[in-house]
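Attaching the record inline, Q. Sequence:
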Amino acid sequence: MSARAGAAPPTPVTTRGETVPTVPPAEKAADAVDVTALLERGRTLATPVLRAAVDRLAAPMDTVAAYHFGWIDAEGNPAAGDGGKAVRPALAVMSAEAAGAAPEVGVPGAVAVELVHNFSLLHDDLMDGDEQRRHRDTVWKVHGPAQAILVGDALFALANEVLLELGTVEAGRATRRLTAASRALIDGQAQDISYEHRERVTVDECLEMEGNKTGALLACACSIGAVLGGADDRTADALERYGYHLGLAFQAVDDLLGIWGDPDSTGKQTWSDLRQRKKSLPVVAALAAGGPASEKLAEILAADAKAADVENFSEEEFASRAALIEEAGGRAWTSDEARRQHAVAVRALDEVEMPTRVREEFVALADFVVVRTR
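Structure, as predicted:
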């Protein structure tokens, strides 16, 4: 999409057959919902099963995986590292309750989704050259690229084992959804890499990529517990729609943090997405907006594409690019898009009969996604 002088930032697009609204969500979850407790419950239920799965790996993959999850440090000593936000395990457990099952029913799904998610992180860190994750050196930096690849592959295989060894019809249905989501996630990563080498990417292309890379697995997390609990496809599909649009909101916020996030909170370098030449939503929206700032940004990024050492640019050079993105409207548009996708996600919950408490928890977790700082 070429920049057009004087044009406004892109209008909301149609995704998954539904037009995204243009107003921020008016609904808020009940104040009584403790999102931190929801996340901690998902982590507490899933972690013992996750550890048991990782323990099956042959040495040294078991140790490398334990380092990645933050259970040990680089020397092999026990550690209480940051294991991530645990949004996906929380959603899987909540989806079991949405289907009327006990939260524990969703635990194998929570573990399987978490294994696939971390498979993608191990490979993404290597492909993107990221040296830091969760305030620590990444696996490829500590243990080498070969181990990052092998352990990622092993986690992917374990995810399917954890589900299929249940031996139930529901486990087979859940595995089909997980494998479909995994394929979409890989498609999204391939799109992301290819976009780095293109001068222009449209907003629709960017949203499709982010829907694959982030939305698909979150969608699976939101349905997999319900499927294991015996929910029909109509219920599971509605929960997937919630998760898909929640994933787009989640990624929009990630894109903002990838440029303007505080490194002390994100655990990544300043301007991390700009260093990697990522065509994230703020960049794409700014380039599509038109106007002087958009045109100047396009010229600078075109020159950057020919430079071999963009990661070694000064902080001032990255700051100037971030300022142009903001001036062109990319930051504001992406923030609004996160809120629009949030609203679509919450509306999908209306299609599912579930306890009021569980619905409020889904809404509260969606609220958390669009206001987080890490």
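Confidence is low (pLDDT under 50) at residues 1-30. The chain has one domain: 14-371.

More tomorrow.
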